[in-house]
Design goal:
17 strands, five-stranded antiparallel sheet, 382 residues, single chain, 3 domains, Trna Endonuclease, Chain: A, domain 1, four-stranded mixed sheet
Length: 382
């Protein structure tokens, strides 16, 4: 398949950059309009996933091992983004169909986690549709600034929600889009295309990240106060968002973002939502038994991916792996029943979302708890 090159320019990249697909370009546009991102670098470095070493390029890696019998496993992420807080993330855009055909990519975030790095896989499920349209529309306005008098007029809007077309009576389209980027106006970027009938809410100038629902500075129905662990970082759960099925969070760096109610429900179900008052788990380190279980699950995922690449069907995979692990002296003493196909798929999904942390057994969190039937609990779990 011949890839079509796309050329981009923007305030967060150096010069003209090349992307290999429309999906990559959309991911770059999203990073450009995200206030957390300071700079974007395409094809930044090549990793040997077997040794964990970094190389300037894939060619440099292959030349180093030319003729020595070693077969490296090269991988070059689509982007490296440096955040305002000083940390960095590697980003990869992939179609869901590609991941179904090459499921070994689902293990890459876990490999990066072991190297002390963060890799985020983003699929067409998020990047295609309204978000693509909105990101491309907002991108040209990233470097623009509103005149102080214009910004003051936006802040003076008292209506809870006003349609885009009504604002055109007093502001230009460019000023309205710039106001959205600067956090003066808020709307849903993921689910709906921004257009004349789009309802915009006054946000007061608090810039936040474009999360799963794409909204900025949401109005929360009722404060929650629990903690959601994402990539081993504690995000404060602010509460359910008024007017849409989303939950508002505050990241450790103070940036507000959202996740869908469905995703939040999933996080609750796997034990990633904690109550600081009752869960003494925020800084909890796994014991030896838990570390053993994580190692087992990781090994199962690695063998599943390898057998999948060989064309082995699920029933055959389970038989082969069960026999291998029963003979393996490292795991033969494991007392639990060998996992089913569905359980392994859940582990792979958790590993994709959270890295090695997602493979931790959550049973240590069970036990008698005082009931906490607040508004958020009732709304999401029942």
């Amino acid at each position: 398949m011949v890839k079509k090159a796309n050329w981009l320019v923007g305030p967060k990249v150096e010069g003209l950059i090349q992307t290999e697909s429309v999906l990559e370009s959309t991911l770059a546009f999203c990073a450009m309009i995200d206030p957390r991102v300071q700079s974007i670098e395409p094809q930044p470095v090549t990793f040997d996933l077997l040794s964990g070493k970094r190389y300037q390029s894939k060619d440099v890696l292959l030349r180093e091992h030319l003729g020595d019998g070693y077969q490296p496993k090269p991988y070059t992420p689509d982007f490296r983004v440096r955040l305002q807080c000083g940390s960095e993330r590697f980003l990869e855009a992939k179609h869901r169909r590609f991941l179904e055909e090459k499921p070994e990519y689902l293990t890459y975030p876990g490999i990066f986690s072991e190297l002390g790095l963060k890799l985020v896989l983003v699929t067409d499920e998020l990047l295609q549709g309204p978000l693509e349209y909105n990101a491309r529309m907002l991108w040209p306005h990233v470097s623009q600034q509103l005149a102080p008098t214009v910004a003051k007029r936006f802040k003076a809007i008292e209506e809870e929600a006003v349609e885009f077309r009504r604002l055109l009576q007093w502001f230009s389209q460019s000023e309205i889009l710039t106001a959205i980027l600067q956090g003066l106006l808020a709307t849903n970027m993921v689910d709906t295309r921004v257009g004349p009938k789009t309802a915009l809410t006054s946000a007061g100038g608090k810039k936040t990240a474009f999360g799963d629902s794409g909204a900025m500075t949401p109005l929360v129905k009722q404060y929650d106060g629990r903690i959601l662990m994402i990539d081993d970082q504690a995000h404060e759960v602010l509460g359910p968002v008024h007017g849409r099925p989303a939950v508002s969070l505050r990241a450790p760096d103070g940036i507000q973002h959202e996740i869908s109610v469905q995703d939040f429900q999933f996080q609750v179900s796997i034990g990633n939502v904690l109550d600081p008052e009752t869960d003494g788990l925020r800084n909890r380190h796994p014991n030896a038994e838990e570390q053993f279980e994580v190692a087992f699950r990781k090994a199962v995922i690695e063998q599943t991916v390898a057998l999948e690449a060989e064309g082995v069907t699920w029933p055959q995979r389970l038989l082969i792996m069960r026999e291998r692990f029963e003979r393996d002296p490292k795991f033969s003493k494991r007392k639990k029943k060998f996992p089913s196909e569905r359980t392994i798929q859940v582990w792979m999904k958790q590993n994709l979302r959270h890295g090695v942390h997602g493979l931790r057994d959550r049973t240590f969190e069970s036990g008698n708890r005082s009931s906490r039937h607040d508004v958020l609990f009732e709304e999401i779990l029942y």
